[in-house]
Design goal:
It comes from Gossypium barbadense (Sea Island cotton). Keywords: ATP-binding, Cell membrane, Glycoprotein, Leucine-rich repeat, Membrane, Nucleotide-binding, Receptor, Repeat, Signal, Transmembrane, Transmembrane helix. It is found in: Cell membrane; Membrane. This is Leucine-rich repeat-containing N-terminal plant-type domain-containing protein. Pfam families: LRR_1, LRR_8, LRRNT_2. By secondary structure, the chain is of the alpha/beta class. It has a domain of 118 residues: Alpha-Beta Horseshoe (Leucine-rich repeat, LRR (right-handed beta-alpha superhelix)), CATH 3.80.10. Helix content is 13%, strand content 23%. It has a 12-stranded mixed β-sheet with strand order 2-3-5-7-9-11-13-15-17-19-21-23, with no helix packed on it. It has a 6-stranded parallel β-sheet with strand order 14-16-18-20-22-24, with no helix packed on it. Strand 2 and strand 3 form a beta hairpin. It is elongated. The chain binds 2-acetamido-2-deoxy-beta-D-glucopyranose (NAG) (8 copies). The site of one 2-acetamido-2-deoxy-beta-D-glucopyranose has 4 residues, from loops. The site of one 2-acetamido-2-deoxy-beta-D-glucopyranose (NAG) has 2 residues, from loops.
């Protein structure tokens, strides 16, 4: 009788306390089993790094590519860059709840990104660059609000750029080049005031460039080249980008004139507009952008005289206006 009562009591205690217990009681063992699950999902490890080094007999924090926090001794960084690994990512990686850096760059991982990665709300640095990941770019990436760097370049991602990426209010680098991304560029991207570099080149983006960027004081590089962008460059595009240094819009279907707001970008070093369908003249204000080193505007329908003010640009290294209807010549002053 007493025994039965005790058993019942224990059962009740277990029943009601287990769920909370198992949620709170994640330890370095949770991290270890997540990493061992990753090891299990790797089908080729040419340098035998995981095979020999990720052994349960040595502490997880000493494993190759793994870093732990000094206080809590939980896994805070996982960097497996360039190990030639082939495999998929297991959902268990979503249990590495202290992770702030996850770099899988330069390997041969494939498949989709597991949705459980959306639990990694401490992530600041995330790179899946140069792998064979596919499927859509998940919209849950927009919930990783601590992200500073998001690298998805050189993969097989398709579909559209999720609007939710605009919620990443601390993002500095957004690098999506060389995928199969289509649709238009969401206006939300230009809402990220911390943005420094945005690379969307070599995709299949279409539609026009979103207009009216907010004040983006940190933005230094925009690369939208080699897509299918069309329409005019928005008139106000450069109104609030005072620190823009590099602009790549070449190899698209852009039409219309060079907007006057471009000449507010006093720091501009690289202007690349070649292989579009732009028209009109090259304004004399080009001579005011004294930091310019490269001007590539060939293969458009520009016409008129090449402004002699270009000769004022003492830092200019290369000026290409071939296959246009310009008259006059470019005389370099030294
Ligand atoms: C695993 O790699 C780390 C870092 O290179 C090294 O310090 C450690 O000794 C290695 N451990 C084993 C068991 O090979
Ligand atoms: C970790 O994640 C996997 C899959 O998402 C799950 O099955 C497992 O129970 C989780 N918890 C621990 C403590 O490993
Ligand atoms: C990835 O590999 C390429 C080509 O080998 C190399 O140029 C690049 O620096 C590597 N990236 C990283 C982050 O190691
Ligand atoms: C930009 O951010 C503001 C303020 O946070 C918000 O009200 C607005 O809806 C956002 N616009 C876009 C296009 O994301
Ligand atoms: C770009 O647009 C053109 C015309 O609309 C279309 O024929 C072509 O397939 C598109 N290319 C890409 C890469 O989407
Ligand atoms: C461009 O420079 C010229 C003379 O160098 C100056 O008169 C003009 O105001 C400048 N324009 C702008 C838009 O800064
Ligand atoms: C140059 O002008 C001629 C005559 O207007 C036109 O036929 C031709 O397409 C133009 N070339 C370019 C590259 O815009
Ligand atoms: C730029 O060039 C023009 C014409 O060559 C000249 O009149 C002007 O003074 C120059 N401006 C500057 C700021 O050097």
């Amino acid at each position: 009788m007493g025994n039965t009562f005790l058993n019942l009591a224990l059962l009740i205690i277990f029943h009601f306390s287990m769920p909370t217990f198992s949620m709170k009681l994640t330890t370095i063992l949770t991290d270890q089993s997540a990493l061992l699950a990753l090891k299990d999902h790797v089908i080729h490890d040419p340098e035998n790094v995981l095979t020999t080094n990720w052994s349960a007999s040595s502490p997880v924090c000493n494993w190759f590519g793994v870093s732990c926090g000094s206080r809590h001794r939980r896994v805070t960084a996982l960097d497996l860059t360039g190990l030639g690994l082939v495999g998929t990512l297991p959902p268990h990686l979503g249990n590495l709840s202290f992770l702030s850096l996850l770099y899988i760059t330069n390997n041969s991982f494939y498949g989709r990104l597991p949705a459980q990665l959306s639990n990694l709300h401490r992530l600041k640095y995330l790179s899946f660059g140069n792998n064979y990941f596919g499927g859509e770019i998940p919209s849950w990436l927009g919930s990783l609000i601590e992200l500073r760097r998001l690298f998805l370049y050189q993969n097989n991602f398709k579909g559209v750029i999720p609007f939710s990426l605009g919620y990443l209010s601390k993002l500095e680098f957004l690098t999506l080049f060389e995928n199969r991304i289509s649709g238009s560029i969401p206006s939300s991207i230009f809402n990220i005031s911390t943005l420094q570099n945005i690379y969307l080149s070599y995709n299949m983006l279409s539609g026009s460039i979103p207009s009216g960027p907010h004040e983006l004081l940190s933005l230094e590089l925009i690369d939208f080249s080699s897509n299918n962008l069309s329409g005019h460059i928005p008139k106000d595009m450069f109104d609030h980008l005072p620190n823009l240094k590099e602009l790549y819009l070449s190899v698209n279907l852009l039409s219309g004139r060079i907007p006057a707001s471009l000449f507010k970008c006093k720091e501009l070093q690289m202007l690349s507009l070649s292989y579009n369908q732009m028209e009109g003249s090259l304004p004399i204000e080009i001579g005011n952008l004294s930091m310019l080193q490269y001007i590539y505007i060939g293969r458009n329908h520009f016409e008129g005289k090449i402004p002699k003010q270009i000769g004022n640009l003492t830092l200019l290294v290369d000026f290409d206006c071939s296959y246009s209807n310009f008259t006059g010549e470019y005389i370099r002053k030294n």
